[in-house]
Amino acid sequence: AEVAELRARLRAVRHTVLVLSGKGGVGKSTFSSLLAHGLAADETKQVALLDIDICGPSIPKMMGLEGEQVHQSGSGWSPVYVEENLGVMSVGFLLSSPDDAVIWRGPKKNGLIKQFLRDVDWGEVDYLIVDTPPGTSDEHLSIVQYLSATHIDGAVIVTTPQEVSLQDVRKEINFCRKVKLPIIGVVENMSGFVCPKCKNESQIFPPTTGGAEKMCQNMNVSLLGKVPLDPEIGKSCDRGQSFLAEAPESPATLSYRNIIQRIQEYCEQHHLQEEKIM
Amino acid sequence: PLSERANLAGVRHIVLVLSGKGGVGKSTLSTELALALRNAGKRVGILDVDLCGPSIPRMLRVQDSSVHQCDRGWVPVFVGHDTAIALMSIGFLLERPDDAVVWRGPKKNALIKQFVSDVAWGDLDFLIVDTPPGTSDEHISTVEALRPHQLLGAILVTTPQ
């Protein structure tokens, strides 16, 4: 009955993309928010961004929605809208103060994630993007389990170039395989830094074991792209602005846009294949 | 139980390394702190309670080591020769290094309790506890399990943004 309830609620969602990493601090939330902005640039598309990082919800700040509250209506919880076609949900909106710690064990976190899927009135959605916390635990198991009521197009896995990140990301790839979650591909963030003054390129996080490129080859997954470090990215996130809009000329913007396009193409192709089967 | 107190009885100070945020350098700091204390002549141990993303073994180049049992529980992995750093991490319990530990809270809590009470640390001046990001199962369980012992306090790590 629970699954049926979720299925009904998520029936109007065309594509679902999970943004994962084994590692913390590699840019999942940054990427999720930019993916949402990028997809919502097409005003004919309805985009939903769901933040299931219960302990460290970054999405409200990154989307410029700090201090917003969730409203209830007859049809459920209303997402907080950044644009008319871009709605957001996060535990961040449920806190009385932004510094309140959510000190919950697994089962309580799972309960809220289920509520997010069951009680939020997303409406018709072309793309549901789900931002996750680092790891392979309750949140990840639950979201895959609950979203089996609909279908997940796939996961985008984010990493940085160094081995300490890659070793966690390999685990995440294996997690996806274990739960039969298709992997759209891997994004390598913080991939090089070009000095704005001398234009010299440095590797702030040297890929001592070949970076995401080598890992993707070894594990037979797609490398969607590499995004260089740009201090404007962090600044935009802190200010709640879209980096893509604030710095359209940055090489990082170009990388992000290419990656977003590849994800879109994957989803559209996936949809066509599904339709063919049906 | 007597054995529970016994394994941590020889540890003078326990320090937690925390952050809400991932990727800010908790494991890096834990490792550097342990090395600095060892170089200052202290006996040091590291308990890595990041079960999903254990970074400490690789940082100390012992990722290929495995742990053994003795009558008091697990023997930690010793890093270095003369003054060794004692290390316990789930990394040593994995069959393959890329195996994902896909556990829900209760299973994580059980292992953390074991890590706290069943590792034969011996006499240490400092036990540094490296944690994963967040404020959830691992953190609650670790603090609960360590509370009866000599918990000095927590170091919080962040980055500027």
From TrEMBL, chain A:
Main location: cytoplasm
The keyword Ion transport belongs to this UniProt entry's keyword annotation: no
InterPro entries, alphabetized: Mrp-like_CS, Mrp/NBP35_ATP-bd, P-loop_NTPase, YlxH/NBP35
Transmembrane segments: none
Annotated Gene Ontology cellular component terms: cytosol; nucleus
One Gene Ontology molecular-function label: 4 iron, 4 sulfur cluster binding
Localization: Cytoplasm; Nucleus
GO biological process, one term: iron-sulfur cluster assembly
Keywords, sorted A to Z: 4Fe-4S, ATP-binding, Cytoplasm, Iron, Iron-sulfur, Metal-binding, Nucleotide-binding
Stated role: Component of the cytosolic iron-sulfur (Fe/S) protein assembly (CIA) machinery. Required for maturation of extramitochondrial Fe-S proteins. The NUBP1-NUBP2 heterotetramer forms a Fe-S scaffold complex, mediating the de novo assembly of an Fe-S cluster and its transfer to target apoproteins. Implicated in the regulation of centrosome duplication. Negatively regulates cilium formation and structure.
Name of the protein described by the UniProt record: NUBP1 factor
Organism: Zosterops hypoxanthus
From TrEMBL, chain B:
InterPro entries on file: Mrp-like_CS, Mrp/NBP35_ATP-bd, P-loop_NTPase, YlxH/NBP35
Record keywords, A-Z: 4Fe-4S, ATP-binding, Iron, Iron-sulfur, Metal-binding, Nucleotide-binding
Cross-referenced PROSITE patterns: MRP (PS01215)
Superkingdom to which the source organism belongs: Eukaryota
A Pfam cross-reference name: ParA
A GO MF term: 4 iron, 4 sulfur cluster binding
Presence of keyword Membrane: no
Name of the protein in question: NUBP2 factor
Species of origin: Zosterops hypoxanthus
Gene3D superfamilies for this protein: P-loop containing nucleotide triphosphate hydrolases
Any one GO biological process: iron-sulfur cluster assembly
Any Gene Ontology CC annotation: cytosol
